[in-house]
């Protein structure tokens, strides 16, 4: 651990020894215009193929957390998925393009992955038995998960010396698998073609023009198999790192309406072994660099395939299983929630976290299935942040990351504040550019309605006298246990978040604050603030 990281932790643990600065700022929420909108089920997570032998940096953090060996009957697992009421689960990963499906006329036994020195990523091909597929779908049905399944896009191809794979995709095994899935009545929300084969690829690559021809074949295959079903799944591709030329070529070759969603992967924090992971997470300039990727992808879609939308199909912050004591700690939520907000602002419809369980970056602990801090961050986002993204103007405080959405499933606006500063406590005054104005604290904005007045009018409009109710806002303040940002335990409004005695997810209850009381956020903490009955034109 480097000196700067130790200093950050020391300052967080010993606030009395460092002079805390109070800074007053103004945020302006443009509630008159929709910046973007996400899918109703924006939050997703992945389940990977890695066996327990997958190791990085002298540690093997995967255990029994793969698609093949995960304990699907564990009550914590079911409860964790069910709490989202529609969590997206993406089944895929690096070994995806070596998976054979145990159905139809297989030319080899249906065996598990084994270590193989000359194999892709150091492993042999592996097989998914249909009994295991049945068990997985039983879990999905019980928990209400929305499933994306990543197909093997290398089947039938041959590698060259430059790790580029050539030849046409052989769809026979995938066709047998999809037919089996439909015949069993399993509900698959989307099928994804390949994993990290775009551009120069990770381990293997396929030319964009060839890939485009192959997704046409998959598109026709899905039309054939699903012709008698009421809903046809989406077709996703390529599930790789963004390369503007390659992604554009894929859309051009495959043609209108073939690829429904472009999926890309992001690991902007670098390798999990990097001693400066915490520094990167707390650096607003570093976090903002990823905006370029989102912006460029949006333009690529507009120019080459405006019928398609963008998803983050896999993102774990740090690659190679994540960073121990960082990716599974409170500090990671600064990166995670910031990127959720950034992606949504740039027209991303779905964001899948690597992983639900497995590696150091799992939302759940690999061994105990107990939620890590990022699980609760994701669940709060899922419950509070609606589809419509609003613009927030914050020009004076780069360490205070700010995002606003219409509140989910009810009236109002939810504001997300992420304080990356180690010493500054922000006092926040909120204004609005809509026909109403937010006002918190003593500052006033002339020629605009106050926030309190706009809420009173909303209350009166539904038939209740505003004087009969207490006008308040909801606050969800997230902090680490003991002030240690590398803690594996998160507090909500000062109370430890832990599973109940029966293994259920705890209640995520807010504290109510008077609407006109000052808003503040402590250093190195996160706060969701819900303004009910906010009179926003974009949220009606």
From TrEMBL:
This is Heparanase-like protein 1. GO terms for molecular function: beta-glucuronidase activity. InterPro entries: GH, Glyco_hydro_79. Belongs to the glycosyl hydrolase 79 family. Endoglycosidase which is a cell surface and extracellular matrix-degrading enzyme. Cleaves heparan sulfate proteoglycans (HSPGs) into heparan sulfate side chains and core proteoglycans. It is found in: Lysosome membrane; Secreted. The keyword Glycoprotein applies. It comes from Solanum verrucosum. Residues 1-19 form the signal peptide. Keywords: Glycoprotein, Hydrolase, Lysosome, Membrane, Secreted, Signal. It is a peripheral membrane protein. Gene3D superfamilies: Glycosidases. It comes from the Eukaryota. GO terms for cellular component: extracellular region; lysosomal membrane; plant-type cell wall.
